[in-house]
Amino acid sequence: MEGFSKQQVKIEPPQNQIDAMIDDSSIPSIKKLDDATINKIAAGEVVVSPSAALKEMIENSIDAGSTQINILCQKSGFDFLQISDDGHGIKRLDFPLLCERFATSKISNFSDLRRVGSFGFRGEALASISYVSKVTVTSKVANSELAYSADFINGLMLNEDGQSPKPCAGQQGTTIQVRDLFANNPQRKKSMGVNEEYGKIVEVVTRYSMDDKKTDLSTHNVQRPSLADINPAESEKLKNQLRIEIIKKTYGQNQAGREFIDVVDSLDLFQYSLSSILSKPNTLQSKKSFFLLFINSKFNQLNLCLLDRLVESEKIKRTIDSVYQQFQPKGGYNYFVYMSLFIPSEQIDVNVHPTKKNVIFERQEEFVEYIQDLLIDKIANTTGERSYMLDRQSRGQMREDLQSASLPYVHTREPSDHHKKNLNAMKMVRTDSTAQTLDRFLVQGNLSNSNKTLQDKQNVVSMNIVSVKKLIYEFENDIDEKLQETFRKHTFVGTLTPEQVLLQFGLELVLVQVEPLLQEFLYQQVLRQVQSMEKYRLFNPLSIQELLKISLDLPESHYNPKIHLRKEELIEFYTNKLVDKSDILNENFGIEIDKETASLVALPIIYEVVKPYPEELPIFILRLACDVDYSCQNRYYHQIAEELSFYYSKLVQLFNIHNVQGDGSLGLGSLGAGANGQMAVINGQKDLQRTREEELKWQYANKLFPFMKTNMSIRKKFGDVNEMTFTLITKVENLYKVFERC
Ligand SMILES: Nc1ncnc2c1ncn2[C@@H]1O[C@H](COP(=O)(O)OP(=O)(O)OP(=O)(O)O)[C@@H](O)[C@H]1O
Ligand SMILES: [Mg+2]
């Protein structure tokens, strides 16, 4: 044991003796590079070609607020490249720093980078150009009588005294001349063909003129509108039309395509908006693909975006490749895609590379996936890949028809209305069971998928539909974090009435209005199940005409014979409309209408516990016909989901009016969608009603609330002080006080 406790003594020779003993003369030593070499190496990264130098100088001119930029070049810019602008110019005293590395007027410290509003900010471009060519700068600022000029090489000003630039005559603005580009780097020069480089120069000029309505491309002059000229309210659509003209003029139809898809989109989640032009698949004759990506980054004092930064994003490019590959699987794919993205500068990193060309987005994966879905959706819609899409003409026609017809409207529901406890309106539903033969509403469950769990179903939701994805993003990102957290951990205390339950939130006892909560839950469920909705089949198909007839007799329809069309005309109009839209309704939402007989044959199973009940069906059908804007995909997904959730959340009627008989088990089956899936309407049988009450309580405690607990986004509106869905009844400490008194 002792041996272990003895300290071992390590004898080491002094470091210099060790060094002397080792022969390392063959290993090169590390030395610090001199500034000139560092700068030359760095210059090679920024100025890789004449077109790269031109890009930097155009960006400088734009940063200087120029309204007109003229470009001249000889031998593709290798011999001579000149760019003149009418921007704010360069102050005489700034000349010595102009070509020095990391000297800039655009940012002062690193934090400025978060909101950089200019193309440049690194103070490297002119310095780099001066390391690979001879540079002459002439500039005049507005309040100076004279212009000044100086030559630069290797970052230094070359004037006789090495200090001040020479005074000369000149117009306001800056002219930069670049001579003998890459004369000191013949390998680089050789690697670039003069013709090929000329093409690139034209492309740079073209790209920067893309956002400009006053472009004269034929002379390769880029005329930019004055800032005052730009009308921020000008619609993106109109701008895209102009862009299409420019694209066609510049690239020709072979290169750019004959037909384009115009995409304008925005999403609050990423605080982004996009304006894009895509060539339709299979319309491009050229084999080459073009992708122009601009990020808006120049703002005026009002924070309105004025100009775009031309960038590259390998991620987005690969996504576009894959999208077109899907539509042009045979024989390769090709495309012309122009994209102008507006994203707040805090959400993009442009400082990835000295050329500032590459960008990384915040939440890049998610963002790029969103873009991918959007493109697929837009292309699929325009190329008619979706069977339910109507052609534009008939959509337009339908709209006109609707506008010209004098139609009744179904009262638009105020979102807060049904959150209040006032349920009188619902009790006003006029039902005449003998005249309307409600028995015909008997519903049969669709058994084929009944053993699938809801979660399974949700996993197969088609997330390709951007409009749906957007709506899901909306509620998933509108969460009241605190309330969500407490709701996730709630304990179910008990059901007071079908409309009210008690939950325990930590130490608090909370009264919950079921209907508004259920409605929100169903809305979310509908959207998650779009295109994978299971169905209840009706025993007997129900004539849409008859349903509409019933609905127009109901007070909620607000039908007024004095101001509206005759009932028969309306019924016919709406029946045709629903038949016309039946593909949208069926494929997405499981609302199946037989086109031949114009009758309803199935309704969706949104959530097993909640059933469609007959009394509100006519008004639901009327709402589907007249409250949904089928011409706009973004809107109709939201509106139909809302209608469905409203219709299915009417628990009170469900509870009071009809009963269910099923396979006898207490769970899903007993409510009608189980093994034999039968549901029957039985009026006035008190016993069964009591059983039903018991069942509902059981469903709340064991199915609905546990499921909502983990699968529902509790939106901010529920946390609002005026919102009555969750009401605090008491806190545990108060109860203790009561107990103490007892
Ligand atoms: N055409 C111009 N008009 C007015 N000022 C200019 C012009 N070109 C360059 N400058 C001035 O010279 C400075 C250096 O330009 P340079 O392009 O090297 O750097 P930068 O634009 O600031 O950053 P980056 O290297 O990212 O482009 C600019 O900050 C600007 O003040
Ligand atoms: Mg610059």
Automatic annotation (TrEMBL):
Cited Pfam families: DNA_mis_repair, HATPase_c_3, Mlh1_C
Example of a GO cellular component annotation carried by this entry: MutLalpha complex
Protein location: Nucleus
Domain DNA mismatch repair protein S5: 247-380
Keyword vocabulary terms for this entry: DNA damage, DNA repair, Nucleus
Nucleus is among the record's keywords: yes
GO molecular function: ATP binding; ATP hydrolysis activity; ATP-dependent DNA damage sensor activity; mismatched DNA binding
Gene Ontology BP annotations: mismatch repair
Main location: nucleus
PANTHER family listed in its UniProt record: DNA MISMATCH REPAIR PROTEIN MLH, PMS, MUTL, DNA MISMATCH REPAIR PROTEIN MLH1
Similarity remark: Belongs to the DNA mismatch repair MutL/HexB family.
Name of the protein described by the UniProt record: Dna mismatch repair protein
Annotated organism of origin: Stylonychia lemnae (Ciliate)
Gene symbol of the encoding locus: Contig17130.g18250
